[in-house]
């Protein structure tokens, strides 16, 4: 069902669509949380299967390029196994007014793999768009996976066992961003679950990022070092092009041994220390000021009476 | 008589027996307190008893007997012996034992100091006093009554460096306010003697701004020196007091130091001639306060101040021009002054002797070295500790009933959120 497509269409996906779908899914999932079970004996409660959400994707098709800009949600009618048609048309009209160039390009859903029942929905949409796309978002979080869990399927007519059938075939896509989308994606990426606004955690996050980047750089260079040692010993054949690449990489690495680096580094370090010192000074002075005020109120016989704090 | 003799001997035996563990020593202490009058009545026989006791082990007993010995009037011949024996005791005694009877120890040391001054050899007393001080102190931040006596001996014996070692410690606990005043005053004088004017300024500032309910003469004298040191070190003096000065000091100190304030005014004009006329006018008063040496230093600091002002205007200047601007007599004198200032690190310049030109340079410190990092790091550590101490003190003071009573009186009658009356008195 998932061989690669041969239609030759190039797909461009905007991040807004991905964010929309994931937001839809998260909302539905959090709203349908079952109440926590109280029985202690019944520990092995399997969580209910995650709900599937459905919606429509819209965009522009120019020649062989299909660019998916936006999406909106649709209600799935379980009894008829189809999407709510009236709502879809109404939404389509509304969007047409704002974005006259956008067409309904297809639909989306969540899940780990495309299913047989999806073909029905797909066929139903075929009267709006003769070749709709099916966008599938896999909501399960897999840390090992490096790519986005989004797949785009097209439908093709294949002959299987003598019967021509429509099956889903996978297509490749690229991500296309507008400036506004890039900013918001960056913002979403840096959100932390707990108080993300505090300066201390932001600094810590920033430094952790730098630390992990340097760690990765270190490990990669160690691999290269290993390789070079092996070449020197003669275990591995010597490849000149690889050596040239390694040497150019090494020239790009900053050298930390020069005097100028020491000077600049020490100067910046001293500046940071001085700022910290200044901050502590200010802190101390303010504590001292309060202490002196209290002392004067308590013990100095002739200190200023009155001085009531004004109500704001 | 016999009875007393026996009881003395039994007492000595008990001292020897009960100087082992801490519980024993406490018991001995209470015993000794009870037998105090016995000591005072048997003064003549006390001296041979001392030979039976070992000061390092039986410190408490030895201390009691020694104190009784020294409380009697001492003749000049005995003074020398006494000084030697007390010095020996101080060097050998055990610190924990004498801390049980601090006032006895302090009175012994004070008598010791009196004898040393009587013998007109204060230097003999410096080292034992230092040891005594260190043994009596509970921590290095504790100011004992012996501190000012020690500093006085250092001043009289001109051993300023030893005094400086004590002054390096920060003080956080004080036994008696009078000790504090004297300590800071003597300490300021020692620092002036060693030309460490910034530390002297700090110490004298402490005397002037310390809390006091009535004016004391130490503060008055300190204020005069404070004005002079401030002129020498900072080149200016502000007449307003910081807000933590006691109101007593704020109102009265200026009345006693009128000639000094005149000096401040004439210093402010920047002209040597005016300054010198002012000095001549008040010469007797300065001499009476024994501040004449300091006043002379103020005059010479005026030249330095003027030369420093020149560095801000000129990049190079000839020695003759310097002499003319600063009102020195010759270029040679100007060269001497500039050379001295370069050596002291007060300005950065190079003198070209061929054409008599002085080029003023920038501060060569680049703040790029590791030593600078260590300096800043240690300063940060110090200020962190200080900050912690300050917050603790602040919290302690917030719970002080005296403060709460006064603060409660000043609050508004009605609370903002609900119209209940705010309690205006805190009854504890």
UniProtKB/TrEMBL annotation, chain A:
One of the GO biological process terms: COP9 signalosome assembly
Region (Disordered): 28-48
Domain of life: Eukaryota
Pfam family, one: JAB
Main location: cytoplasm
Family: Belongs to the peptidase M67A family. CSN6 subfamily.
Protein name as annotated: COP9 signalosome complex subunit 6
Automatic annotation (TrEMBL), chain B:
Domain PCI: 196-365
Keyword field contains Cytoplasm: yes
Keywords attached to this entry: Cytoplasm, Nucleus, Signalosome
GO cellular component: COP9 signalosome; cytoplasm
Keyword field contains ATP-binding: no
Subcellular location: Cytoplasm; Nucleus
Primary localization class, coarse: cytoplasm
InterPro entries listed in its UniProt record: COP9_N (IPR055089), CSN3 (IPR050756), PCI_dom (IPR000717), WH_DNA-bd_sf (IPR036390)
Pfam families on file: COP9_hel_rpt, PCI
PANTHER family on file: 26S PROTEASOME NON-ATPASE REGULATORY SUBUNIT 3/COP9 SIGNALOSOME COMPLEX SUBUNIT 3, COP9 SIGNALOSOME COMPLEX SUBUNIT 3
Family membership noted in the UniProt record: Belongs to the CSN3 family.
Identification of the protein by name: COP9 signalosome complex subunit 3
